[in-house]
Amino acid sequence: MIKPPVPPDEADRLRSLRGLRVLDTPPEERYDRVTRLARRLFEVPIALVSFVDERRQWFKSRQGLDVAETPREISFCAHAILQDGIFVVPDSYADERFRGSPLVTAYPNIRFYAGRPVHAPDGARVGTLCLMDHEVRELDPEDLHLFDDLGALVEEEFRNLELITTDELTGITNRRGLRSIAVHTLALCRRVGRPATLVLLDLDGFKQVNDTLGHAAGDELLKDFSRHLLDAFRDSDVVARLGGDEFCVLLSGTDEETAARPLDHLRERLAAARAAPAGVPPIRFSAGAARYDPARHPTVDELLADADRAMYEVKRARSAARS
């Protein structure tokens, strides 16, 4: 095993890392969403967002790993931050820098590693988005492009730290956060030829709840609906509140037909919870879905507009059926 050297810009790098104020903070959905997506797209057992400080690599997000940090001197990520490009170790047993590392010879038994350095807004390499496997692997050029795009998602979240991207009432992503995340998510789907679908949801009769029971009851209903949304959809889907009683979900790797399944699950959850809040009517919603088409949807707003039109078609059809 060879210990990683210290970068020449170490003092400035550490200053940038501390400026992010992420070290030793709780897990956050903004980073967990990326590592879940990376783990699923590359079919690896472990995906991490790792930050390297003076003495350790600390994991802000970890999928498939039970430890929160490891010493810097044995870390793969401390080698990865020495360069701008993606750092790949196809077989740790054949690499003198790592073959004797306890991370290779014992848990988590790393055989393959890929680390994409992630940069703070000032350009400093503060950590990595990394993949790990227990088997020898290679990444082809298309894999490298995809992995680079995922790393850009992490860097976008660093920039978002300076913006308000979370809905204060429900704790889920807001409209601004959705736009930021969707730009990268849709680019990834376009690059790898996978579908993406945006579902727009509108609560039925919400104004009546506010008017008859008060805004406090309306706020509780919005929070309940947000929790049911998060439970009904996949961890890698982007759930957002656009404002008022309007919500949306962006599903990567999913067509309209497949997107209907979690909507059915959501209806089942809401039906089962009908008797919960005393005096509050059952939550009902209308939903419309639009499949992402790069030619038709050059921006996220065009995709939202198509989903909005689909939702109001559902409302009109329902109204016509009642009359």
Structure, described:
It contains ten helices and ten strands. With 323 residues, the protein is an alpha+beta fold. The protein has two domains: 130 residues, 2-Layer Sandwich (Beta-Lactamase); 148 residues, Alpha-Beta Plaits, CATH 3.30.70.270. Strands 3-2-1-6-5-4 form a six-stranded antiparallel sheet. The chain has a four-stranded antiparallel sheet with strand order 8-9-7-10, with helices on both faces. Strand 2 and strand 3 form a beta hairpin. The longest helix is centred in the last third of the chain and has 23 residues. The protein is elongated.
Task: Quickly describe the structure.
The protein has 323 residues and is of the alpha+beta class. It contains ten helices and ten strands. The strands form two sheets. It has a six-stranded antiparallel beta sheet with strand order 3-2-1-6-5-4. The protein has a four-stranded antiparallel beta sheet with strand order 8-9-7-10, sandwiched between helices.
CATH superfamily of the largest domain: Reverse transcriptase/Diguanylate cyclase domain
Distance between the termini: 76 Å
- Alpha-beta content class: alpha+beta
How many strand elements?
10
Form type: elongated
Instruction: Please tell me how large the radius of gyration is.
Output: 22 Å
Low-confidence stretches: none
Overall pLDDT level: 91
CATH fold type of the largest domain = Alpha-Beta Plaits
CATH architecture of the largest domain: 2-Layer Sandwich
How is the biggest beta sheet arranged?
A: 6 strands, antiparallel
Number of domains: 2
For the largest sheet, list the strands in their spatial order.
Answer: 3-2-1-6-5-4
Percent strand equals 15-25%
CATH class of the largest domain: Alpha Beta
